[in-house]
Amino acid sequence: DITMEPLDLSVRPPRSPYAQMHGIYMIPRTIDKMRAQLPGGKLGPYSLSTEFGPGLSIFLLDGLRLSEKTLFQLVQQAQAEEDIVNWLQGSVDLSGKARINEMLLGPTAGDVLELIPQSIFDEFYPAAKTMPKTAPMFDILIEDDRLMFPAYFAVRLRQRSSPAEIYAMLPARKQ
Fold first, then answer.
1. Can you point out the beta strands (E) in the chain?
2. pLDDT, tens digit, for every residue of 11-69?
């Protein structure tokens, strides 16, 4: 049986929180975190939740009414990401995607700072130190990824052949 390869998130970031599956943000990033927990993978500095509360991946799973265990088992058994796409299509009510996306896109640095002390927040999200309190958490996650893995992003930019491909790497901005 061929299964999905584990990921080493100590040497590269998971996909952008803006990456979508079935029109829902965060699913590909959450799958990457699950793949990092497969035998041979490394989660590195990433997690699904913290001692202070659930991360955005857990909010995503709650919105899909899907347990962390169920998704992990699916990732363990999948031969390719398309297996996950197909399973979600047939097994999960995806009609609430607008509500889920709104819930995921909504939190800002200021919102999280209402829940945890500034010193802890800065430790978890170093890029946030230079960003406004109104910055969306998705943008903070991307900037933290860039801080942790600058060589990875430099190589990715050099591999792009067109401005459109480079633009696709950048976070989507709210209109």
1. 20-21, 24-25, 49-50, 53-54
2. 999 999 999 999 999 999 999 999 999 999 999 999 887 777 778 899 899 999 999 99
